[in-house]
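Final report, closing paragraph on structural work. Over the funding period we assembled a curated collection of sequence-structure pairs, and we close with a single example.
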Amino acid sequence: MKMKKNARNGYFMMAVLWLAYVTFAMNWVAGSSLTPQITQTFFNGPVDPLIAELVNYSITTARVFANILAAVVLMKLGPKKAAGIAIALLTMGLVAIYLPNYWAYTIARMIMAVGGSMVIIYMNPVVAHYITNPKTKLRINAANTVAYNAGAFIVAMLFTLFSNQMIANWRLTLTFFASLTLVFFIGWLIKAENFETKEAFQGDSYGYKDALKDSFIWRYGLAFAAFLTLYVSSLVSFKTIFDQYTLLNGSLTNLLISGFGIMGTFAGIRIGNKDIERKPVLAICGVVMVGAFGLALMLANSVPVLAYILIAGSGFAMYIQYPIFLNLPHELAGMTPQKLTIMFGLFWALAYAGQTIATIIWSFLLGHAGYAPAMIFFIAVASLYIVLVATFPETKKKVEVLAVEKAV
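Its predicted structure, as stored:
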């Protein structure tokens, strides 16, 4: 027996998951921005880049396993309990702040990351269950993709305008961001409802064995790993890198990437809702995103004003394609909430595994070979995104061809 859909509760659930992920992003980016202060507290001095970036590695590594775990938990417990557990895990970000050493702090942040990964996975079945209009679905998926950027933008704004106050007491700063999660956890417990994720459809149930054999998911996930290497590092790791190695202000670069990224999202929604092919948009924006950021790195110590402009352009191009990119599986034929959960679980695992490995190598190069070799490697990895996008199926074209065939 199918449960009746409550549209109002559906939108409430989407809003809570979105806001929970925003607070996760705020907590992650703020923690990364405060890395010098945090390592000073735990080690009484500066540390090797590999150690300084350990928390970021742990977060991305946790997300690899969490994305697969999310699908299992969802199918066992249903969306209400599964997402409730995910939001509860986010509160470990609050616990981490007051643990006695860096290693315990890192482990607690890993658990927080598990919750963050589960939250973003659960957005997909909720949208698929409550939203049927494809244009509305694209808008909501676009809003979901910008959740991290919204959190990063808020943090960047605060660190730009109130830098001294934000770094004065890192524990107090992180407590403020992490405490917000408790509000959304309570809201979820009060208003969220359950629904069936195993929608009826012809053929065998789609599981992880099917997903592992799907070459599209591998290309899709590895392409996003290259995208994330640029996207996550530019917002999480590069603040301190720009401050240390260049004439750029790291807080301002974060603000430009996230702010222009939000504007790019609105452009992406408009483009995505038009009857145009997806691959050319992804390819062109990918070239602009990577090319502009690479040029900005080259000019960071000679023409900083132009570097800022290029960084803003990179953020804008980055987010034009982001909602279109993450909506591609929704445009494939035969999608159900269960299949989307499996596909995105493996997708996010592949993406974060690739991004974590690339970032570890980048940090090693930065500490042992220097700034220039590390940045050459960084841009080379990001460029793989453009190559892999060229191998994607054209989802919009297929929809249009089918429509023409039906009309004939």
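The radius of gyration is 21 Å. The chain has a mean pLDDT of 82. We thank the funder for supporting this effort.
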